[in-house]
Amino acid sequence: MSAFNPSEAGASWYEASARQRVAGLVDSGTFVEFVDPTEREVSPHLPLFDLPQQFDDGMIVGQATLNGRRVFVAAQEGRFMGGAFGEIHGAKLTGLLRAARDEGSVAVLILFDTGGVRLQEANAGELAIAEIMRALAEARSAGVPVIGLVGGRAGCYGGGGLLAACCSAIAVSEQGRIGVSGPEVIETNRGVDEFDSKDRALVWRTMGGKHRRLIGGADRFVEDTLSAFRHAVIALLAKRQAFDLAVLEAEQSRLAARIAAFGNCDDAYDVWRALGAANVEAIPAMPGDAFAALADQLQEAQDDAR
Description:
With 306 residues, this protein is α/β, with parallel strands linked by helices. 43% of the residues lie in helices and 12% in strands. The chain starts with 17 loop residues before the first helix and ends with a helix.
């Protein structure tokens, strides 16, 4: 089996580690890590539960260039505790966003891959989410674009889902899933009749990248490759990312319209029909380029209707 090569155009984002994603996203050789593993900033809580630590605590932060443009980058490692937020993990992202706020001109790219907050660090993790959210809003208020990328194994759940919704823009692959409560959480609290977490088709059409793009929860749908995410970020950074009262009011109006249009829908298929899609059963298997074109068309129709 050949070694992973981030320079391969078709290398899978889903299969890559956080460090491989960073290497394949930014300009080659330009990434400089802050608070790297040699500093051993590890969670003070995990040893209390006799759990292993990781020297970067599952969060990689640093700076690089992307297509010649300086950017800050944060990448979660979904293979370590499901990319869950803890005290150190969250503090590193908070610090990066505050640095971007102070600079005022350096975009932030957040590579989400998380199941939410660590149960072992519940209070510290919840506080970390609140601090990150405030730092993200402050950065955007200072004119900083914050682009979220979702396509990892753990998805983007819990506090991660809330943070993604606060970003200037989101790029998502079909493998990416975004939500506040994950499938198992919903099933545990509401029962399997409400939501069967083992029904992968149900999970993906409810929380997956295609559905999030169709309902306007993501700005760009991409194939599951490192190069596709790179090109998506370059395109999103080329657009003006405003953050003012008009933007917030427009977003609130969009959410209200979404509830009015889809509030009585029982399944994603019903939502897609309400959007005007034909042959909705074919959407889950639709090739990426064809789906992206369909999503753009349906979004334009929705925008015109509003």
